[in-house]
Design brief:
The chain is an alpha+beta fold. The chain has 10 helices and 11 strands. The N and C termini lie far apart (48 Å). 34% of the residues are buried.
Length: 296
């Protein structure tokens, strides 16, 4: 089932000319965590350092240096650094056109579109104990080389290496020809995540969110945590603090004004939660983005 487009992450990851994007992720240095989200593109993560906890399609696991994560389109996913760890990884987000999804040949029809539509599953977490890992690692490294080069000529190699990676996944038994059983629960939670993302600056109650999901309060809280990995209140806090980090990095607005715009009526509470999540005060965080910035 294709999810409601209103629940999609708003960032544009690809264009017709360059159908992919690259991000260096350093948690919690750049941001405390990656909130639960989804997008219409594929995503590949390659971990360079540290250890993190990932939740993808309702499955929770730890990943470490050298692991590869592959998220199909529309899969809910989130990432957290493990305690006392700095998690560093490359995130490559790409359109399915790089896999030939706009073609009508049998490869696209039988091997690519079923993944996009959620009719078959990918083994998201690839690690050294798995068959074909060494080959998949080399292929992933070549993919990321092409992404860093970012030229029309290396795009030729990029396409071939992506197809090779998915061929290796199938050869190693990492593409599972059965529906993803987490899809139904994800569909219940998506509208709630969209509502929270658009209204985090306002007061939000569990009762409101449970009503939006058409669930009882107690069952909603269980369903939300099983899907997202944290409680609805914790997720709301993450959204507010990530928005505050963005504002501190991109503007010189007063910290008190930023706190208010992100849903905090109490500056002391904002400062306390910010310190707990990022390990520094809002003023210290801003100085990292604006060296020499004055206190506000």
């Amino acid at each position: 089932m294709t999810p409601d487009r209103k629940t999609e992450e708003k960032r544009q990851h690809s264009t017709t000319l360059v159908p992919y994007s690259y991000y260096e992720c350093r948690l919690p240095e750049y941001f405390a965590n990656v909130p639960m989200h989804w997008h219409s593109e594929f995503e590949i993560n390659y971990l360079y350092r540290g250890k993190g906890e990932f939740i993808c399609g309702g499955r929770k696991f730890e990943a470490v240096e050298g692991d590869i994560l592959i998220f199909p389109p529309n899969m809910l996913h989130t990432a957290y650094p493990c305690k006392d760890n700095i998690l560093v990884y490359d995130a490559f987000v790409f359109s399915s056109v790089l896999l030939g999804a706009n073609s009508s040949d049998r490869c696209s029809a039988e091997c690519i579109w079923p993944i996009i539509n959620g009719n078959i599953r990918i083994n998201v977490h690839i690690h050294p104990e798995m068959e074909n890992y060494v080959e998949m690692k080399r292929t992933t490294e070549r993919i990321l080389f092409c992404v860093h080069e970012n030229t029309p000529r290396t795009d030729l190699l990029l396409k071939s290496e992506l197809l090779r990676l998915f061929w290796l996944l199938e050869c190693g038994g990492h593409i599972i020809f059965q529906p993803d059983d987490s899809a139904g629960r994800d569909e219940i939670i998506r509208p709630v995540l969209e509502y929270m993302a658009g209204n985090y600056q306002n007061d939000i109650t569990i009762e409101q969110l449970a009503a939006l999901a058409h669930l009882s309060k107690s069952y909603f809280m269980k369903c939300f945590k099983d899907t997202v990995g944290v409680s609805a209140i914790e997720h709301l806090t993450q959204l507010r603090l990530n928005a505050a980090c963005d504002a501190l990095s991109a503007t010189r607005d007063k910290i008190s004004d930023i706190a208010f715009c992100c849903g905090y009526n109490n500056l002391s509470n904002f400062n306390r939660q910010f310190l707990k999540k990022t390990g520094c005060s809002p003023d210290e965080y801003r100085k990292r983005s604006f060296p020499g910035a004055l206190k506000s």
